[in-house]
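user: can you give me the structure for this one chain? tokens are fine.
assistant: on it. calling the predictor now.
[tool input]
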Amino acid sequence: MAGALDLRAAGHRRKKRTCKTMTKTASLIVAVAAILVGYGHAAFADIANGRAAFDAGHYNLARREFEQAIAQGNYEGRYWIARLYDLGYGVARNPERAFRMMKEAAQKGVVLAERRLGEMYRDGYGVLQDYPRARTWLDAAATDGDMVAQRELGKLYAGATDVPADPIRAYAWYDVAARSGDEAAIDRRAKLAKSMSPDDIKVANALARSFAATVALRSGASGASDQ
């Protein structure tokens, strides 16, 4: 009888210790999560502060804010520092350095960097001109929901460069950008439609709906991952 009581008491003590350990572990997880959330918020705050300083012309302050964001893992800060070198704001203009930093940010999925990298390849700015790579990066930004990239991709497909013309794809991307309110895309879509057959426009409209669905899907996935 005494032995059974001792066993039950030992079992209660083990359960009590286990509960205490689980409580401590849960508290630690909550504390770490809170730190990480605060860390992420700080990185985004640095970007917001940096952009405000950038817009006000305080480029040295902007750079410090963007560097802090980079240190906290926010690669959008690298895009903005690349823009400083791209434009020569607060530093000597350096297209090659701007290109390298822009590429690093684009490869991390920064949409603004994807678009600017595509433009740099298209224009041969900071890198040898390369239309296929320009199309690749503009396509990435367009699919990620960048309205300007959607219009610029339409221009590439319309034959504005050495890329073989594809009026159906050009119309489709103009349409996606136009539906987001891009006035230039609305104008270009209307002009392009005059040189297309009704059947081609029908195909282009179907393709535009497919592109828009992909953009919406990507934007939704991105929004969910940001929460």
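assistant: here you go. Residues 31-129 form a domain with the Serine Threonine Protein Phosphatase 5, Tetratricopeptide repeat fold (CATH 1.25.40.10). The CA atoms of residues 82 and 100 lie 8 Å apart.
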